[in-house]
Amino acid sequence: MHELGLLAEIVDKIEEVAKENNVTEIETLVLDVGEYSGVVPAYLEDCFPAVIEGTMLAKTKLKLNIIEGKAYCHDCGKTFMIAGHEQNCPYCNSQKCEVIEGGEFVIKEIVAR
Ligand SMILES: [Zn+2]
Which domain holds residue 105? Predict the structure, then answer.
């Protein structure tokens, strides 16, 4: 479960930025989590209380913005939603597809009080 480490890094980063901006309390933390980022949203929620304990974010709410997987087909030029783990193009069945959305794991928004 690498979610714990990822969250700890994010919390560190936010504390740093908050201090620079004289922010003392963060109300909500919004993260973009792509379906293909390898991060499991349920684990993030499980880890969050342990990670924020004793930090400036102790009262912060976690909000996850799930981004669906989307791919681009290099053969026919169409984009399509990735269903499950099937990444072949549904139009021409090509395997030359590239994930263009859904690999994100980034801070989307920090709402300060
Ligand atoms: Zn195609």
Answer: 3-68+101-112
Q: What is the pLDDT of residues 51-108, one digit of tens each?
A: 999 999 999 999 999 999 999 999 999 999 987 656 789 999 999 999 999 999 999 9
Asked if residue 40 lies in contact with residue 111, where contact means CB atoms within 8 angstroms, the answer is: no
Asked if residue 96 belongs to a domain, the reply is no
Cα(90) to ligand 1 centroid in Å equals 7
* Domain CATH number, residue 43: 3.30.2320.50
Give the number of domains in the chain. 1
Residues in the chain: 113
Question: How far apart are the C-alpha atoms of 69 and 32, rounded to whole Å?
Answer: 12
* d(CA 100, ligand 1 centre) in Å: 14
